[in-house]
Amino acid sequence: MRILWRALGRRAPPICLAAFGLWVGLACGGCGAFQLGFAGIFGAFAVSWTALREPWKCGRLLLCALCVGAALSAGVLRFQGQEGTLAGALLSLELSGSGEGSVSGEGVSKSRIPARCLMPKAVEGRLDIDSQTTARKNRRIELKVQALEFVGPNAWVRCEWKRAVFRLSLLSGAGPRLSAGTEIRAESLRSPVRGGDFFWVDARGIRQLREARPFAQLRALFAGHFARGISMAAGKAGPLAQALLLGVKDELDTEFKELFQNAGCAHLLALSGQHLSIICALVMLVGRRIARREKWTRRASLAFAWLFVWLAGPGPSLLRAVWMLTVSEAAKVLDRPQSSLAVLSHASVLLSLCAPSSINALSSVYSFSAMAGLILFSSRFSDMLRPYLPTSIAQALSASLAAVCGTAMVSVLSFGSFIPAGILAATAAGPAMLAFMWTALAGGLLAGFVPMIAAITAPVLELLQGILTSMLAFGASLPAIQLGTSVVRRILACALIASLVALMYAVPRLRWRKARRTMECLRARNPRLRARGGCLLFELQEE
């Protein structure tokens, strides 16, 4: 621990410790009181430890940064606790006839009405994100609630707010796709399902109150036009192309989704930095041909990245990637280059401030842990594999191994399973996936202007989809490690994974210490021995 703390003091910027405190605080959970107390006590200790005339030392600055991250996690947890869900609100809500709601009906007194006597009848609000299709072909709707209606014995209560006070998740049957920004009214709500996280509503009970705002209508127009272009250019591979480029999985078969999951490659279907990098690479390629100025090309690439996030929807993985691009570009403009780990830490802090309700979602945790694994372990695996494999294969395999090292403990703790086949499947499917996305993107952009290009792109994309399916089927046929529901097994498995990961840093350091001790012994035996550039030299004395 002493060696690790010294290494952090020499190399790690304070933002990394702030991000570490944020994630540790989110992992602890609760209402945020413990995290806030830790931040206050240790922050006060770090400040009082430093005298007014004494120069500020790096170790104390890191401790303060850690306290800031803990305090930020307390704020995020407090925000999530206040936002809550409708099911949680019903457990603690008491409405009265003289309150904000209006009560009508015969025989209703002005006394308090217990919440357990009220049943939700309707909800009104605005869609936060586009409606998503679940594995059972249902519609998942995320609402920012603006009005609620309850019914009880001889009572009707309606509550309205000027702005949305919490979010609510609804499940409905197959219905039309609803875009973000649309204001709807859902009637005939049924009892909560899945532990009270969702309410079921019939698709016929959903009606649109008013048109979306002009900005949301413009987004829906662009996204629909791009989706039609992709479908036209991809042919039978259109559902996969829309899932990879727009995150729309409405037409994707359930068996195909399960194939990705069984092969350990479910992350390839989620929009992330890999998809965003293709957009940026295309803009950079065109911008260098037109502008021939690196600075303006980078800024145009960043602008198109934000445009893509606006079209596809602000998912946690996409927000992480676009914030990393933004921080990196801002550091270049300010002439303050940042390490990759510092850029990732900035992205986590910014995401917790801009989207506190989704920072600790499972997709967000997977995205950040995979990126942290790539930053910390990719070069280590590459150095280990490069003497035995070609450079391109070694780099691809090292990236898969590093991502698995980052997400292995998350998978074990969340699902109790680990799929080693995902390493080989993701490595083999990576080039095919990259070629598929490049072809689909180019075809989708050109199909709206040149429809004849579909005759070229559709067969190519269908062939690539067949190759990708074969690779995933081979990965799904390999056995997976199942740990069951035992908490002890999961904790032991995580300890084993952490020990193996730590060896990648411990073994090189032990070798370095052994070489250093050997050098000191040689110097003690021969005073004329000296070292320069890692080579042993003997000093010759003239007689």
Architecture overview:
This protein has 543 residues and is of the alpha+beta class. It folds into four domains: 2-82; 86-212, OB fold (Dihydrolipoamide Acetyltransferase, E2P) (Beta Barrel); 224-368 and 427-483, no CATH class; 369-418 and 484-517, no CATH class. Helix content is 59%, strand content 13%. It contains 17 helices and 16 strands. The protein has helices at 2-11, 14-28, 33-49, 58-83, 86-92, 214-234, 238-245, 254-262, 273-290, 294-312, 316-333, 340-354, 362-385, 391-415, 421-447, 454-477, 487-525, and strands spanning 94-95, 102-104, 113-114, 119-127, 132-133, 139-152, 155-160, 167-172, 183-187, 192-193, 198-200, 206-210, 417-418, 481-482, 529-532, 535-538. Strands 2, 4, 5, 6, 7, 8, 9, 10, 11 and 12 form a ten-stranded mixed beta sheet that branches. Strand 6 and strand 7 (155-160) form a beta hairpin. Helix 3 (33-49) runs antiparallel to helix 4 (58-83). The longest helix is centred in the C-terminal third of the chain and has 39 residues, at 487-525. The chain is globular, with a radius of gyration of 28 Å. Mean pLDDT is 77; it is low at 51-56, 90-111 and 537-541.
